[in-house]
Write a structure and sequence with these properties.
Helix content is 24%, strand content 40%. The protein is an alpha+beta fold. The protein has an eight-stranded antiparallel β-barrel. The protein has a five-stranded antiparallel beta sheet with strand order 1-2-3-4-5, covered by helices on one side. Helix 1 packs antiparallel against helix 2 and helix 4 (175-183) packs across helix 5. The chain is elongated and about 100 Å long.
């Protein structure tokens, strides 16, 4: 579930979150120990030689700063407000130097993600990122503290969608970039790729070990999102019932550079889950299906035989379904970003309303078959952030 609390109030997007870095617990312990020792030394010096109190001034100042940092990390809520007039940031209740910023809509050029710092714990290194804003005059301003790359990219997308800013990859800028391009073009290419990875726009997440899902085009400005924009934790009004989205997958296809999404939604009243499939048919057009996974014996009755090549047609009674729109690409979990290579075929018939979706992975060793029935957009009455 997303760490961000989101409101859409009269056309103004409000995003709130708290810092959740594990280091704050270490800092709390360190601040308590540090200030305890300062207090002990203060009592000892007052009882012996008060003239040496100046010696503690530097250490005492460090202790006060530590207390301030810890209080800020535990108590502060970060807030970004995005409206037609522009964007404002705020952090409180503990004041943060430079935490309150304001940008008019016409001075915002682009938002992007930038590597901030890293934290080591044993052999594991955790990378942290910041969401940045670049003005049309070329100045770069931070909008967030340290986030995971996925969180920073999620925040970037929500704000850009609301402001109507077209997402694009920013090129490496500055004197260092110009120097590298002039005297070391090979190193410049490496630096450019690294900068793109930090932005999450190179096709791979930072570190290069796992794929990053393609960005789904956002909803129109100030309009409630459609079904394909739902995320785990959202509430979906489907046929008059409020259903909770519990999980989801995104499919990024290679051939046409389009993406589909499959949502798992839970009906608490009936005590069962439904599966909704969102298919992108053009840059701004989607069609929706309710689908059900078929048991192995059902799949075999349609002509899907274990261990054999994937079929080009299926037979359901008198209806024949022929393969179309064969695709290959990557399937991403919307919860943890895990990816795997998959292939997909859609089977349709001119005489039947339903269709079949055949998904295969691990070079055909894992095969799933789903029956789908198209639903109208009117059946999806609302999609609300949880």
């Amino acid at each position: 579930m997303s760490k961000f609390e989101i409101e859409n109030r009269s056309g103004e997007l409000i995003i709130r979150w708290k810092d959740s870095k594990k280091v704050k617990w270490f800092l709390l312990f360190f601040a308590l120990v540090w200030n305890l020792f300062i207090g002990i030394f203060l009592v000892v010096m007052l009882a012996t030689d008060p003239r040496n109190l100046w010696y503690l001034s530097l250490h005492g100042t460090a202790g006060i700063i530590l207390i301030y940092v810890v209080l800020r990390m535990f108590l502060n809520t970060n807030e970004i407000r995005v409206g037609r007039g522009g964007l404002t940031t705020k952090s409180g209740p503990i004041p943060v130097p430079g935490g309150n910023k304001q940008f008019a809509a016409d001075e915002i050029d682009q938002l992007f993600v930038k590597h901030g710092t890293q934290q080591k714990s044993g052999t594991r290194t955790t990378q942290y990122y910041r969401l940045m804003l670049r003005t049309k005059s070329g100045k770069e301003k931070g909008l967030s503290g340290m986030l995971s790359q996925t969180e920073a990219l999620d925040l970037e997308q929500k704000i850009e969608d609301h402001l109507g800013i077209e997402d694009r990859v920013l090129e490496l800028d500055g004197k260092v970039g110009k120097f590298l391009r002039k005297y070391a073009p090979g190193m410049a290419d490496m630096a450019e790729e690294q900068f793109m990875r930090q932005q999450g726009k190179s096709g791979y997440a930072e570190g290069g070990s796992s794929m990053a899902p393609r960005r789904i085009p956002g909803p129109a400005k100030d309009i409630e999102p459609e079904l394909q924009h739902a995320e785990p934790g959202y509430i979906i009004d489907y046929d008059g019932n409020n259903l909770a989205m519990t999980a989801g997958e995104q499919f990024d296809w290679k051939a046409d550079r389009r993406s589909d999404r499959r949502l798992t939604i839970y009906d608490a009243t009936a005590g069962e889950s439904y599966y909704l499939y969102c298919e992108q048919v053009s840059d701004d057009e989607w069609v929706y299906f309710e689908e059900r996974p078929l048991a192995p014996e059902e799949a075999r009755s349609l002509g899907l035989v274990d261990g054999e090549e994937l079929p080009q047609k299926l037979q359901n009674g008198d209806d024949r379904f022929f393969s179309r729109n064969a695709q290959s690409g990557h399937q991403f979990s919307m919860s943890d970003g895990q990816a795997r290579e998959v292939s997909q075929q859609i089977f349709v018939s001119t005489s039947a309303k339903e269709r079949f979706r055949l998904l295969s992975a691990d070079e055909g060793k894992e095969v799933e078959l789903f029956i789908q029935e198209q639903i109208s957009k009117e059946q999806i009455r609302d999609v609300l952030a949880g």
